Amino acid sequence: MQLDTATYQRILGDELRRLRKQRGWTRRDLNRRLQSDISLQTLATYELGTRQCSVVRLVEICLALDEVPHELMARVHQRVFSDSPVGRIRVDLRKVAQDTQPELLPLRRWAKGRLAELNGTHGPVDVSLDISALERMAELCGVETVELIGRLRAIAGAAEPVE
Q: Which residues are in the HTH cro/C1-type domain (predicted)?
């Protein structure tokens, strides 16, 4: 089994951010609850997955979030090794452009723009999105990456994992 450390860090950060936002806290709120002095920028880099976090620091953050560390790691592990958004997703632009979910408006606009560029193309218009693109789109839509992937899969046949 191979470990993609960049993906693991991004998913860990996504889970930390989700926990913080679930509590309605800003990074500053979380920072005030920590035992050690961590800058807001450092917290941001942990949440973005661009900086590695020591085990002791991770446990401290989990305790501040009132989260059991091994439960957080179990969720991260599951996302990385089983139901992971790692890899690519194939999306039919026409179906995305026709979807009516309000949260997906930025994605719908993007799909319509891509279709306009391909003017005259008939039938399904598939594009393949990697995890980086999905993360950016999820941020624009104001949803978590894994939620965006679920929503894309729910659009009847609109998104399929690419092997």
A: 16-72
* pLDDT band at residue 12 under the 50/70/90 scheme: very high
Phi-psi domain of 24 (left: phi exceeds 0; alpha: psi -120 through 50; beta: other): left
Helix (H, G, I), strand (E, B) or coil at 146: helix
- Coil, strand or helix: which one is 41? helix
- Cβ neighbors of 38 (< 8 A, separation 6 or more) are 31, 57
Q: CA-CA distance, 30 to 17, in Å (whole number)?
A: 10
pTM of the model: 0.53
What's the burial of 102, exposed, middle or buried (CB within 10 Å: 0-12/13-18/19+)? exposed
